[in-house]
Every structure is written in C-alpha cells, then in structure tokens.
Design a protein that fits this description.
Largest sheet: 5 strands, mixed, barrel
Number of strands: 35
Radius of gyration: 29 Å
Helix content: 25-40%
Strand order of the largest sheet: 3-4-5-7-6
Shape: globular
Strand content: 15-25%
Length: 791
C-alpha cells in the first residue's frame, strides 16, 4: 500500500495493465497453477455497457456476479474499474459505479421546457449548481392511459428513469410517479409600506428581489403581515409587480418566525379533517395475542421537555454460564403500526410529511397528537403496545443474538437525562432512588459492555457540540446553550443503534425488502480535498486505501486540545457524504456498520414505520404488516422521505438564523467574538461564539489589497501581504446589518489578518505570479478591497 501511494496514476495504470496481460496470457495464478477464473474477462466496453443498462446493480460485487468472475478474475476486474475511474469513464456514487452524467432509477426532476414535438423536458433537481450545464435532459413520457396529475413547465416531479434505447433525442426518458408541491410564480415575504405610501414585499429568501404591489392588489393584508404574493408582471430591469394571494399571518413576534420556514418550504402543518377523525376514533389496545411484558421494569429516558416517549429500555445480567459477564438489553418501541395502517388517511398524511419538524418554539408532528402524545406515548404506569428487541451481548460488547417481540408493556418510570445521570452520580431523587439497584445500575453496566463493542467498531467520532436556543415564555431568545453530553445520552443512543442494527439484520436474513439508512464513504474528490488541506497542517491521510472511520478518528485525535481542533473537525465533517434512505444497502460509513435501518422512532419518522411493518409481516407478528404495494414502492418512498428530511433540516436551520437575527437587530454596531465557519470566493462566514448563528463578511470589505481565495486550504489572503483569514480562525467582528425576515447578518472584520501556513503562502504566490505573467492588472482571481476596515 505504501508503494502505491508514491506511484503516479499513469505508471500505476500501466503496471496494472501489464500484470493483467501477463496473467491472462499465462492463464495461471500466483502459485503457478492454472486459474480457470481467468478463462474469460469482460472487456472495458462490456463493463461500461452493463453499468449503463443496470444502474441499480453496478457495485463491484454486482458486476463480478453478472460476469461470473471468481478468484483472480475479481482482482483484474478491480484493476479495470480503477482504470476507468481514473480516466473519468466512471464515477462512484453510493458505492455504485456509474457513467458521468448518468441518472438513478428514481429521481426528482424540474420540468424546464418542451422539445420540437411538444414533449415535456426536465433536468435533475439536485444536480450540483457548479455543473449545471452538464445536467442530462430527460423526456417525460406520458400516455392517454396515465391517470396521474397533469404537469407542465415549472413543475417539480418524482419520476422513474429509463435509458433511451433508440439513441434518438435525450439519453433518458421518465415516467411520472407524482407531482411535488412547488410554487414557482409566488414569493413569500413581509408586506412593507414606504414613507411615500408605496407597498413592497420584502422576500424571506434573501436571493429574491423585492416585488412592487399596487394598493388595490393588497386585499385585507396589513403592513407587517407575512403574505404570499403572486408575481403578475416581471420586468427585465427593475422590480416585478404582484398581488397578495394569501395572508399567512401577522409577523409581530419571534414566535411567528418559524411560520416563515413552514410556508417557504411547503411543510404541511394542518392535519386534514379525515386524518383527525381517524385519530380520534382510535382506542387503547388490549393485550390480545401480544406477549405480556408489563412486569419488565422498562423505563423511558428523554429530554426534560419531551412530550412524546416512543422508546423504553431495560437491562439485566445474562445468567447463561456460557456468557459470563454478558448482558441482556431490552428496547421497546411504540407500536405505531397498530394504529397507523397502510393506505389509511393517517398513513398518507404521514408519508406526505415524512418526518416531524422541530423548531425552537414549536413542533410540526408527523402524526396527530392523539397518536404521538397519547396512544403511542409510553407513559409511566399505563399499558402501551410496543414492538420490542431483546438483545444479548457478550462481556466484550459483541451482540451474540437478538429476537423481536410484539408486546404489551407498562413503563416503570419516566426519567429525564439529567435526572437519570444524577442518580448514577450519587444524587438520586424520590423517583430514581427506588429503581437504582433494579433498573439504573444494570442499565449503566450494560452500557459499558456495549461501549466496549462500540470502541472496537470505531465509528466516526466528530466533536461538534450542537447549540440549543432557549426561549422566554413570550417566545423571545433567552440564551443559547450547549447541552452537556452525558453518559445517559450515550446509553440511550447505543441502545437505539443496536436495535436499529438488529432490525436490519433480521429483515435481510428474512429476505424482506426494507428501507435502509445508508451513509456512503467520502467521494474521491472530497478525500483529495481533505488530503490537500491536512497537508498544510503536516498531517497525512493515506492515499489509495479505502478509508475507514478509524483513520479519520486518528486525525481528530492528533489535533485534540490544539488550536486546530475545531477547524479539523469542521473540515472532516464537510468531507463526509450525506446520509439518506434507500432500499439498496451500502452500509453506514459514519457508524461503521454493514447493516443499519431506522426502527426506533416511528412516531416522528416514516422510515421507521415502514421497518416496523416489515418486521411485523416477515416475523408473522399479527396485523399491520407491510403490503405488496409498499414493497413495490420502496424506492419511491425512500427518495421522497430523504427529500422531506433535507427539507426539515433546512427549515430548522433557517428558523434559528431568523430568531438570532431578530434578537440582534437592536445591537447594530456592537462587536462580537466569532469563528470563521466558511470561506468562499465572495467572502467569509463567521459564527458568533455566543449564539452560533452565521453572518457574512463580503470579501470587498476586508481591506485595500486584493484577496485571493484558496479552496484547498479554506482561506483568503492579501495579494501583497500574504496575510489573511482561514476556516476556524477566532476573530472579532462588528454587526453592520441584521435582517430578521431573511435570517441574515452582515459583519465587518475587526481583527487584523494573520500570517498563513507556508503551503497557503505558496499557493497565493503562484496565483499572483500567474496573473502577472498573463499581463493582467485587474482582479482575475481576486477581489478588490473597497472599504477601509472598521469604517
């Protein structure tokens, strides 16, 4: 491996080609014996054709199986695939290989126009913005028999993708699955009246321009209202005109700020009447054919302000003499599938929402309160149906076996994280004292056993504490805190992870289709970017080998308790892929697990409800199992709930930004300490130490000299001085502007630029020399400073 890291790609390719040719010619393996596995090797063209025709079966194992390759033939296949990747003929996506510009089998598309025959044309909605011109065109195929919704230009749809076999027109065609809600011609914002009496819309999206509104187009809206405006006339120059189509509500308090995100992202927040009616008709369930676990003292451990409790835990020492030091861990999860049946109004609405969305001032739940906060909440002392995992661990933390059960349980106690931790730390209260010996101590002993297994597994251990906004009763920002990370949190987290693993293992063993939670390894491009950045800190990252979380943890341990700790944690985080849902299992890179599915939160995640139904059906645990229609639609469901998850994360983050901007609007001109959290060609993002919110510093305000952007080293530096700013730098900034509606803060840099690492200086020196050698005096790759710092 060490030699490979010092071999050039061209030389490595020629060596692999020579080795393949030599072994194929001799027909023998390394021991000299005839190797029948080399009797046939597919050509490069064979492999490329297979990958194009089978995008869902394009992993290395899939290709080897398709061509019946065994033994040394698999090694040669690996070499061919590496050559094709190095040449740009293939690229890796989610541990599958694909042709550049290819499409997945299920995709979200934006309809952009029509072809010469009048057919609708679309492009992938999530194609990278910097590569937008290479996004493939897709023809939407519809027949008269199609009963789906009518769609047109500007619509966003989910579609099944097919390769165009006749090579005429676009490379891909698509069959409509569903139209996704999208309002292309409307703008959400706050209605404002100028001193002259004119009416304007201040958009919540900072990238959208203002819209003029005639007085007779305002309707019943008032100044300060959050409204949706339909753009009626767009001008090439100057602001567009529109009319108020909907009054969302008065924006007179910070509590209303979360409503901006709800409407901007089309998050369903009002349950239809038929859904509420179905929920109200649900009654508590009897024991029936369920196993009776009401004598097992399961407890719930949640945040102090939690309103729903969908998981309970218990542990005991394993008395099996063949498992000395081992423990049995019980994880019971609310049996949501018993109430939310497939295809029912509640089920359709839950799929439409995908997950619950959590804002500082409110929760938009996936299920009605009657279900989430009552019938499926594992309340202390009340009988509740549950789906439970019973897992046996060895003293080393290895899971020895597990089983699933459909039970009736009764929570012995409802505990908060801090309350449970205080009891273990020697300060029990009236609730925890009676269950210390019987419940809490065995739970902690079992956790330390499971922790041994986790430590051996070595998942990715990023140290990036999350901030939490605390509000006053009036909905104003009180303070921002970093909750202490307790062993109680880690205990519940590890119990849930092991239950999720058990669910995935059981369903795979039963050959039951399901939705996995997957997390791909970092792409080659991100690996190379990280490698180049770490080199500036004199930290090496192995090249050529398939990276594992342990290698990232080794890097993080090197910078522990140093000035670079937060910086390296941030850069490692940015190198990671985004987790998502898929019926195709590629494992979970971050957790370092081969099989993983979400099972433990069916109240707030639709993926977990699907896994519950799959377990019920495959293990014959009664009514409520997965249906054939759901099995056939898993790819579409996975794509949809992945999109809904991203929508929720974006809405939550934007709401926090708006709350902080609203809170700081009265502190213009004040100076704050922050940390550079992002570096771009346009400027710096700085996260305030106290609040965690990001503000922007345009690069043109940094000083008089030109500033050059170094993407690899996450820095900008002055062209003459070589001094500048880098990701992770602690700086003082002055607040210049706060826009609560847009959630935007603008700062001015107060801290002086500082010397940068040698590699960064070399980069800027070469960029400057290159610019001068071309005879350019203007800012080709730089940005002119136009404002004196601190003015």
């Amino acid at each position: 491996m060490a030699r490979r890291s010092h071999t050039s790609p061209e030389k490595g390719k020629s060596m692999r080609t020579e080795r393949r040719a030599s072994k194929a010619k001799s027909g023998s393996n390394e021991s000299g014996r005839a190797d029948t596995s080399l009797a046939y090797l597919p050509t490069r063209e064979d492999i490329l054709k297979f990958i194009e025709e089978n995008p869902d079966r394009a992993g290395k194992r899939d290709i080897a199986k398709a061509f019946n390759l065994k033994g040394n033939a698999r090694i040669h296949l690996k070499d061919i695939l590496r050559d094709l990747t190095d040449e740009g003929e293939l690229e890796k996506r989610s541990k599958k290989l694909s042709r550049p510009g290819s499409m997945p089998s299920i995709a979200v598309l934006d309809i952009t126009g029509r072809d010469s025959d009048g057919g609708l044309m679309a492009r992938p909605a999530d194609w990278p913005a910097d590569d937008e011109n290479k996004a493939p065109l897709v023809l939407i195929r519809r027949s008269r028999e199609d009963k789906g919704p009518a769609v047109g230009i500007g619509d966003r749809i989910m579609a099944k993708i097919f390769r165009n076999s006749d090579n005429s027109g676009p490379r891909f065609t698509a069959r409509l699955i569903k139209r996704l809600e999208r309002h292309e011609n409307s703008v959400l914002g706050v209605l404002r009246q100028t001193e002259k009496g004119d009416w304007r819309l201040e958009p919540v999206d900072r990238k959208q321009p203002e819209v003029l509104i005639d007085k007779d187009q305002i309707g019943e809206a008032k100044a300060g209202d959050l409204v949706e405006v339909e753009v009626t006339r767009s001008k090439r120059f100057g602001p567009s005109r529109g009319k108020v189509s909907q009054v969302v509500g008065a924006l007179d308090s910070e509590k209303a700020l979360s409503m901006i995100a709800i409407h901007a992202h089309d998050i369903p927040h009002v349950f239809p009447e038929e859904v509420l009616e179905q929920a109200e008709k649900c009654k508590p369930l009897e024991l029936g054919k369920r196993e009776d676990w009401r004598n097992i003292p399961l407890v719930t451990i949640d945040p102090a302000d939690a309103k729903d409790h969908d998981d309970a835990v218990y542990a005991e020492r394993d008395e099996d003499p063949n498992n000395l030091g081992g423990y049995i861990v019980y994880v019971a999860i609310a049996d949501v599938a018993a109430y939310v049946t497939s295809g029912s109004p509640m089920d359709r609405e839950a799929l439409r929402r995908g997950n619950s969305v959590y804002f500082p001032d409110r929760v938009v739940p996936m299920l009605p309160e009657r279900i989430s906060n009552n019938l499926c909440s594992l309340r202390e002392g009340e009988d509740r149906p549950a789906l439970a995992a019973r897992m046996i661990f060895t003293a080393e933390g290895r899971k020895k076996s597990h089983t699933f059960h459909r039970v009736m349980m009764r929570s012995a106690a409802h505990l908060a994280y801090g309350q449970a931790q205080a009891a273990i730390d020697g300060a029990p209260d009236d609730v925890t004292a009676p269950i210390m010996e019987s419940v809490l101590k065995p739970l902690w002993e079992a956790y330390f056993v499971m922790k041994r297994g986790r430590d051996n597994r070595q998942p990715l251990e990023l140290d990036l504490p999350e901030k939490k906004i605390l509000l006053t009763p009036e909905g104003k920002v009180d303070k921002v805190i970093i909750p202490e990370r307790l062993d109680a949190h880690k205990l519940i987290e590890e119990c849930m992870i092991q239950a999720n693993v058990s669910a995935a293992e059981t369903l795979e063993q039963k050959k039951q289709p399901l939705i996995f939670r997957i997390h791909d390894s970092p792409s080659m491009a991100k690996q190379e970017g990280l490698r180049e950045f770490l080199r500036s800190l004199n930290i090496s990252l192995a090249r050529g080998a398939e990276l594992r979380p342990a290698q990232f943890n080794g890097i993080l341990s090197q910078v522990k308790d140093t000035d670079h700790e937060e910086l390296v944690n941030q850069v490692v985080l940015r190198s990671q892929s985004q987790a998502e849902y898929s019926p195709e299992n590629i494992g979970h890179f971050g957790l370092n697990l081969h099989k993983y599915a979400h099972f433990t939160s069916p109240i707030r995640r639709y993926a977990d409800l699907i896994v519950h139904r799959a377990l019920i059906g495959s293990l014959h645990l009664g009514a409520g199992g997965i249906t054939p229609h759901e099995e056939a639609s898993l790819a579409e469901i996975a794509a949809e709930i992945s999109q809904m998850e991203r929508r929720a994360m974006l809405a939550e983050r934007e709401t926090v930004d708006r709350l902080i901007a609203h809170h700081l609007a009265g502190q213009i001109g004040d100076t704050f300490q922050g940390r550079v959290s992002g570096v771009t060609k346009a400027g710096l993002f700085v996260a305030l130490a106290t609040y965690g919110a990001d503000g922007f510093i345009p690069i043109s305000t940094l000083g008089y000299e030109y500033y050059l952007y170094d993407e690899a080293n996450h820095s900008v530096a002055g062209e003459r001085s070589g001094k500048g700013y880098r990701l992770g730098d602690i700086v003082d900034v002055k607040l210049i502007e706060a826009l609560p509606v847009a959630g935007a803060l603008r700062f001015e840099m107060v801290s002086e630029p500082r010397p940068l690492p040698t590699t960064t200086k070399s980069f800027h020196k070469s960029k400057r020399a290159g610019r001068m050698s071309r005879g350019k005096s203007g800012p080709s790759a730089a940005f002119p400073g136009s404002r004196k710092r601190g003015r």
